[in-house]
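User: Sequence recovery, please. Input:
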């Protein structure tokens, strides 16, 4: 953490209170201010040097696509079955529940398989991934009128 700076940010109303290499450090400072009853709605965390990161989580296959589709179809089938339970009487409901869940799973698997197969024919995206954003540095900025108060709350001498 580098400490207080009077460098202004994008607007003239905000001053940089501290800089951190990780988001967690900036978050801890905001938590510290919140615990001290500081009006944290007048602060913000600004990331600089933002970059997109895509972590590849695995190879996509027809089997995985069908399994994923089956899972979604099963949940959708359960949802439809529970909605129809309002209108079903007696022990017939259990058969309707089982039938709808199985049909939803099979239909979802078929849709997942066909969707992957159609996409695989074009040779694109044969992998699954998760995207995120990261910054090189995070600044905690505070409203200029509260800057000295914030410095005192984090134990820095007011400038």
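Assistant: Recovered sequence (159 residues):
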């Amino acid at each position: 953490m580098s400490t207080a700076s009077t460098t202004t940010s994008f607007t003239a109303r905000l001053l940089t209170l501290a800089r951190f290499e990780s988001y967690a450090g900036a978050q801890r400072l905001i938590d510290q201010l919140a615990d001290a009853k500081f009006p944290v709605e007048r602060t913000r965390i600004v990331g600089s040097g933002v970059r997109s990161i895509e972590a590849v989580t695995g190879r996509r296959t027809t089997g995985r696509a069908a399994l994923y589709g089956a899972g979604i179809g099963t949940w959708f089938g359960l949802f439809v079955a529970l909605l129809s339970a309002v209108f079903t009487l007696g022990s017939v409901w259990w058969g309707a529940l089982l039938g709808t869940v199985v049909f939803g799973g099979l239909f979802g698997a078929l849709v997942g398989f066909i969707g992957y197969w159609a996409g695989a024919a074009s040779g694109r995206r044969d992998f699954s991934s998760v995207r995120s954003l990261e910054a090189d540095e995070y600044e905690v900025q505070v409203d200029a009128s509260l800057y000295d108060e914030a410095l005192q709350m984090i134990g820095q001498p007011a400038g």
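The longest strand covers residues 51-59.
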